[in-house]
Amino acid sequence: MTDAKRPAPSAGDARPAPAQMAGIPKGLWHKCPKCRAMLYQKELERNLRVCGSCQYHFPLSTAERIAMLADEGAFAEIDANLLPVNPLGFPDYADKLARGRAKAGQNEAFVYGDAEIAGAPVVLGVANFGFMGGSMGSVVGEKVARALERGAELGRPVVLVCASGGARMQEGMVSLMQMAKTAAACERLKAAGQLYITILTDPTTGGVWASFASLGEIIIAEPAALIGLTGPRVLEQNLKVKLPPGTHTAEFQLAHGMVDLVVHRRELRGTVTRLLTMLAPARAAAAPAVE
After folding, report:
1. Which of 50, 83, 98, 192 is 20 to 30 A from 33, comparing alpha carbons?
2. Are 103 and 195 in the same domain?
3. In whole angstroms, what is the distance from residue 68 CA to residue 5 CA?
4. Is residue 290 part of a domain?
5. pTM for the full model?
6. 94 and 214: one domain?
7. What total number of domains does the chain contain?
């Protein structure tokens, strides 16, 4: 997909609710959860699913993320059939996984593969919050680690799009161990001299934020994304304090040095392209020689 195929949002994307909704096909209009404007489906898609009135960023599917970032036809998925087991015999876990697959149209919450962004070879990975809240279990952690290790092996930058509610409780300690595994894989990628970019979407929390999502050499966030180890509501309930407004937003994290850039979705591909062009060669050249 070329940049020319990505028209910028316009002020006319938000339309008032039609006076008579009867007879209108389902899915033709969407209400913005932030400003409540009624948005025409086709215009919303042309605007990369961003509200033209308030700029709220709607969630994207894995396929939409890949199409937005990667060159057209340049993504080749790896380990698509890697499936989790039920190590703790957790009740109904198999049913939850089946519902996640049906809802997201993929076998797990994370997809990765070889890709090109503006002609530059990369390893691209995308998390899907629609699959059990993007939670990180054994397979998600393994696929993230493999994506990072593939970048080190092939000498390619790695770009990971993150979205998660945290560790997957149905896998207990096995899930928590993925934090250490993915963090170690991040270090191997950096030691190999390859650039590592993470893109934080709404929400990126828990063990994912505390491991590979926060270890990117360049950390980008989408506007207003919820970012942090523990959500504000849980903190307020447990600490019995009232947090200032916006403490877990991308903008708050930028102001306090936890992310490097907050980038509107329409600028995201161009920003990643510039970073790859400017930083990837320098990062590789600065890496110590491996004997």
Report:
1. 98
2. yes
3. 10
4. no
5. 0.88
6. yes
7. 2
